[in-house]
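hey can u run this one w/ FE2/S2 (inorganic) cluster bound, need the structure tokens asap thx
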Amino acid sequence: MNRKEFLQNLGLSAGALLATYCLGGLSACSSEGVQPTGSVDFIIDLNDAAYAALNDVGGFIKKDGVVIAQTSADVFVAVTQICSHEGLKRIEYRKSKNDFYCGAHGASFSTSGSGNNSAAKAGLKVYNIDISGSQLHVYS
Ligand code: FES
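ok here u go:
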């Protein structure tokens, strides 16, 4: 008798089985990871001193739970600050690796939000950016 059969013999429902499996740490339970809730919609002005870091390639800022980075000349990427691994708000941009990184357990995400390692397998939410002059409109 395997684990599933054993639990079914105990009379647990499908939902209870899933919860039991997740507590056991099976990978299928965490494939979606922790994702941000709510919408994002704001504009920043690159001429504002508060966002001066964005005027340099490799610079990044954090605003309203979003990390915005200039990943290459005049190319900006916005992602959630919430790591999909365990939901910690620790995502930062790393110029040296051109990735988004969470120092809690080492999750590394590409600039398109895909995971680069097992801790990042659930990916990272990437937001839209429209650029008009010095204005960046970031939205979900
Ligand atoms: S919470 Fe980010 S790597 Fe674990």
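The longest strand covers residues 66-72. anyway lmk if its weird
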